[in-house]
Amino acid sequence: PHPHHGQVRRIKKMMMNKKKKNGFTLIEVSIAVVLIVLVGTSAIASLRVGMRTMNGTQSASVAASAIREFREFTFQETIDAMDLRNDSVITPVLGDGTAMPGVEGMTLTIDVQAVDDIDPTTVVTVDDSRTRIVTVTAFSDDKELMEALWLIAEH
After folding, report:
1. How does pLDDT run across 83-99, given as a tens digit for each residue?
2. pLDDT tens for residues 16-65?
3. Spacing of C-alpha 103 from chain mean position
4. What is the spatial distance between Cα 78 and Cα 75, in angstroms, rounded to a whole number?
């Protein structure tokens, strides 16, 4: 055997070992890809839920403003005028009666119920009382967003 044959064999072995240590195996790369896909998918799902929640919050805020503006608009109306609004569906208006901007697809359903002047938990006929419970329900594209009710009286 050649005197340098052992050294050549050792160098080849070191080069082979070095090649095996460079880079990642197919299994390692596959696991990394699966993990990246899982993390990305869950992040997208969380973002969608967050966007839905934010949209719901914004819709509820607009509905609350629409109901508040309706109450302001009708604040000076008489009981008889409010009775005429019973079972009506309107487009939201501002306190001055002009159309409310940014409420496309939203409606307010108005319910006016006569209640006893002394005990507002007792429903009576309109001729027996000058006290009413006004219930306003905000809908957006036929989905109920919010309901508010308040007591009005004229004495």
Report:
1. 999 999 999 988 888 88
2. 665 555 677 888 888 888 888 888 777 777 766 665 555 567 788 888 88
3. 15
4. 9
Name, in order, each residue with C-beta under 8 angstroms of 37's C-beta and a sequence gap of 6 or more: none
Which has more confidence, 82 or 142?
82
| pTM for the whole structure | 0.64
Bridge-based pairing state of the strands 131-140 and 106-115: antiparallel
Which tokens in the block code for residue 135?
């219930």
Q: How is the beta sheet containing 143-153 ordered, strand by strand?
A: 88-90, 106-115, 131-140, 143-153
For the beta carbon of residue 31, count every other beta carbon within 10 angstroms: 12
83 touches 126 (CB < 8 A): yes
Tell me the one-letter amino acid at 146. M
Non-local (6+) Cβ contacts of 91 within 8 A are 99, 100, 103, 106, 107, 108
Contact 139, 145 (CB under 8 A): yes
